[in-house]
Amino acid sequence: MKTDDRDRCQLQVPAEPQYLPMALHLVSDIAELAGFDQRDRQRIEVAVEEAVSNVITHAYPEGGGVCGLTGVITPTGLEIRIHDTGLPFDPEQIPDFRPDPDGKTASSGLGSHLIRHLMDEMEFCNLGNGGKETRFVRYLPHASIFEGAGHPVQTDDVVVTDPGEIAIRLMDPVEAVEVARCVYDAYGYSYVYEHIYYPDRLRAMNHEGSLISAVAVTGTGDVAGHVALVFDPLDPGSAEVAIAATKCRYRGHAVVPRLVTFLEQVGREQGLTCLFSQPVTAHTISQHVFHKLGYHTSGFLLAHAPATLSFHRIAEDLAQRESVAIACKYLVSPEAVTLYPPSVHARMVGAICADIGLPATIAPGQFLDDAVRTELQSVIKTGMLVASIHFSRFGADLSMAVRHEVIRLKREGVQVIEASLDLSDPAAASAAGLLEDLGFIFTGIIPTGAGGAQLLMQYLNGIVIDYQALRLESDFSKELLEYIRLHDPQSG
C-alpha cells in the first residue's frame, strides 16, 4: 500500500488525563484534512478518547507512562494507531458492557463497546517487549451503488448465448460502478468483501495498490465479470485471487477462468511467488474452476463467512456459516524448506506439501524460549464476526497471551478466530500444541510468498460444523476435511 509520509502525523503525550485534549485536537485536525465532516470527526474523537483513557487507566494505573498516537490519511479514509508500553492487557479486568435493567447505560465496559461501533475496523497488536498497539480505521462516507443512484439496482436474467468478443484487461477507474453492479448481480448484497459495493473505495484501493482489479468487458462495454488480486501487507510475496463474479447472463462463457489466468500473469510481473483462492463449499463450481487451473487444496477456513452469503441461482439459502477451502498455486517453483509442525499433524502437513508441490523436510520442533515474549496481531472483520491472529514471535507467555486475546475477541462478539503460525519457526510445533489445549483445531496450511508455509488453526466459538453439508470436488480435499473432522472435538 502506498502511503505518503506527508499524510502521517505523530504525537507522544504523557499518559495523564490533562493531556487528553491535546491528542483529541490532533485527531480532529487530521480527520478534517482527510475529508470527514463534523459529525464523523466527533465519532472519531469519541473512539480515540475512549482508547486513550483505557491506556491511562489500565496500562499506567500508577501514572508515569507515555501514550503514542499516529494518524494516517489513506485514499479511503483515516487510520489511527495508539501505542503504549504499559501493563500487558488483561481483558478479565475489564467487565462486559451491559445496560442497566432500568434502561440506563452502565459505564462498565462502555469504552470497548463505543469503539467497536464508532469505527469501521479495529486491530490489536501485542508487541511483546515493544508494548501494545491498537489500530482503528474509519472510512470516508462514500456512496454505495445502493445510494444516490436515483433508481434501484437491477439485474438482467436473460442469458446471453453469444456475447461476442470479450476483452480481458485491468479495470478502468470509471468502471468501478459497473464492477459493483456485477458483484451485486452475482451475490446480491451478501458478498463479504463489502468495499466492492463502494465504487469510490474500489477505485482508491486499486490506486493505492492494495488490490488489482481485472474485468471482462463485452464489445458493447458491458462489464461481464470481475476478479481481483488482494494483497496482504504481512505476506507481500503472495496475493489472494478474490471477488470473482460473473453476471448471471454471461455464465457459461469461461469468464472467471480467463480473468484468473490474466491475473496470474499480472502476479508474475509483480514478482509474486504464489497465489491462493478461497472457493466456497456450498457448491463445487468455484472449486472446479480453480482445480482445473492448477490450484490445489491446502486447508479450510471453517464457518468463515456468514450464512447470509448468497449465490444467485446456485445456492441462495445456507443452513450454516459458509466454509471455504484454501486452494493455492505457485507461480514459480518453490525452493526446498524445513517445516516444524506439531508431531500429531506432521504426516498430514507432509501430505499437503507433496500435493501442492512444496518440497519440504518435516522436522521436530523446539520448546518455547523463556526469554522471549509473544508478539501477535489480531484483526476483527466486523461484518463477518471473524477475527484473525497472526504471530510474529512465539514466547513462553503464549498460552496466557492467546487466552487473553480469545476472551477479548469473544466479548467483541466474534464467532470464529483464525490463527496462522509460521511453520519455518522451530517453536511453531510447541505453539500449536498450546493452541490446541486452548480449543483451537488444525485446519491445514497455506504457503507464503517468502517461502515456507503458515499452519492454519481455528477457534469456533460455540459453532458445531455439519461436515456432511460441505460439498467438495477433489479426493484430496475430501481426505483433508475428514482428517480435520476426526480432530475436531465438537464433531462427535
UniProtKB/TrEMBL annotation:
What does the record give under GO molecular function? acyltransferase activity, transferring groups other than amino-acyl groups; protein serine/threonine kinase activity
N-acetyltransferase domain: from which residue to which, for each copy? 166-316
Give the InterPro entries listed for this entry: Acyl_CoA_acyltransferase, Anti-sigma-factor_SerPK, GNAT_dom, HATPase_C_sf, HATPase_dom
Is Nucleotide-binding a UniProt keyword of this protein? no
Its transmembrane ranges are none
Q: Is Transferase there in the keyword field?
A: yes
PROSITE patterns in the record: GNAT
Q: Which Pfam families match?
A: Acetyltransf_1, HATPase_c_2
User: Gene3D superfamilies, per this entry?
Assistant: 3.40.630.30, Histidine kinase-like ATPase, C-terminal domain (3.30.565.10)
Keywords, ordered alphabetically: Kinase, Serine/threonine-protein kinase, Transferase
**What is the name of this protein?**
Putative anti-sigma regulatory factor, serine/threonine protein kinase
Organism for this UniProt entry: Methanosphaerula palustris (strain ATCC BAA-1556 / DSM 19958 / E1-9c)
